[in-house]
TrEMBL record, chains A, B:
Annotated zinc fingers (C4-type), start-end: 58-73
Biological process annotations from GO: DNA recombination; DNA repair
Domain Toprim: 81-176
UniProt keyword list: DNA damage, DNA recombination, DNA repair, Metal-binding, Zinc, Zinc-finger
Entry's Gene Ontology molecular function annotations: DNA binding; zinc ion binding
Signal peptide positions (record): none
Purpose of the protein: May play a role in DNA repair. It seems to be involved in an RecBC-independent recombinational process of DNA repair. It may act with RecF and RecO.
Name of the featured protein: Recombination protein RecR
Similarity annotation: Belongs to the RecR family.
């Protein structure tokens, strides 16, 4: 692509560094900004800068936060000894949306994935193990995605805290509500039968 | 969506103002920036700011430029009395890529589209008509996308310069009707410029 302006070229190049944004999309976005009032671009740039330079991670759970402790960790009405282990902040937001969890979170910042060069020491695992060792935690809920990397991460943490006085559980794996049984994959369907739950239990929602 | 940080929320909101970027995509992009070195965000923000505040539009053709006159208009080897009328800078880039046009451009900045509230006076049409009136132009090539709005715009300009000493042509309809100019392949686009036809001819259809 040949640009008539170095400023335009630089903006398009920076924009196309974002994941899933090619040169053509970047150009479309940048030209859109040019057609909008200058204030929109100023606000976008300022918001990104402020976010990147001033954002903090909660000292306790590693969630994104404006303060030293995030709103969830500093909320006295949340159950302090029930911790849900998740991959990133998007999972926190997804679970918070369901309003069915009243404990705290622990954000790992990723999953163990040797293929991508992510080992256990690149993740926020040690502080979690320390919390358990200090006896602050009664129950740990693993809520990582049920993929190979997620299972590996679950297992690694489980080995670290084995023998300590803590209950571990994972989120239920089964058929999604509203799904057709005949289209479910064999592993999921098989597990959902092995891990069947009392009928009365399934009525709670 | 509930955010644990106002800074994050602001960044996501600003990002999702871009066309085709929803809240979920914006969050994905912003979290990506958080995982990258701070310099990437700084460079992106700076490039967008510089682009929006310092970019100029060529005094002659309205193309995006770093100088008062763009590189094409100030190139003495380009044919000065042959002007190709296009919708926006992406079309200039697409035609330049074919290397089949050696004249100048005139960027309208849009198409007449009453549905979107864009009338002739919102476009850069008057300077083009003035150029023709001053006798600077021998031939005008209409290279707008062959849609209803493009045809309307062609026809509006044609009526404005009717009777003046200028040849008008449109790019050949090798481009499928309804297609966007920027996505046409180079051969088709190049040929459609070489095989341009008198504007009166294109009215019969």
């Amino acid at each position: 692509m040949e640009f008539s302006s170095k400023l335009l070229e630089k903006a398009v190049n920076e924009m196309s560094q974002l994941p899933g944004v090619g040169k053509r999309t970047a150009l479309r976005l940048v030209l859109h900004l040019l057609r909008q009032p200058e204030s929109q671009t100023v606000q976008l740039a300022q918001a990104l800068l402020n976010m990147r330079t001033e954002i903090k991670f909660c000292k306790s759970c590693n969630n994104i936060s404006d303060n030293v402790l995030c709103e969830i960790c500093s909320n006295p009405r949340r159950q302090q000894d029930l911790i849900c282990v998740v991959e990133d902040i998007r999972d926190v937001m997804a679970i918070e949306n369901t309003s069915s969890f009243k404990g705290l979170y622990h954000v790992l910042g990723g999953k163990i994935s040797p293929m991508d060069g992510v080992g256990p020491h690149d993740l926020n695992i040690t502080p979690l193990v320390n919390k358990v060792k200090e006896g602050q935690v009664k129950e740990l809920i693993f809520a990582l995605s049920p993929t190979m990397e997620g299972d590996t991460t679950n297992f690694y943490i489980f080995k670290q805290i084995q023998g300590l006085d803590v209950v571990t559980s994972t989120i239920a794996r089964g058929i999604a509500v509203g799904d057709e049984l005949e289209y479910a994959d064999e592993v999921t369907l098989g597990r959902s039968i092995l891990n069947r739950i009392p009928f009365e239990g399934s009525l709670k929602s």
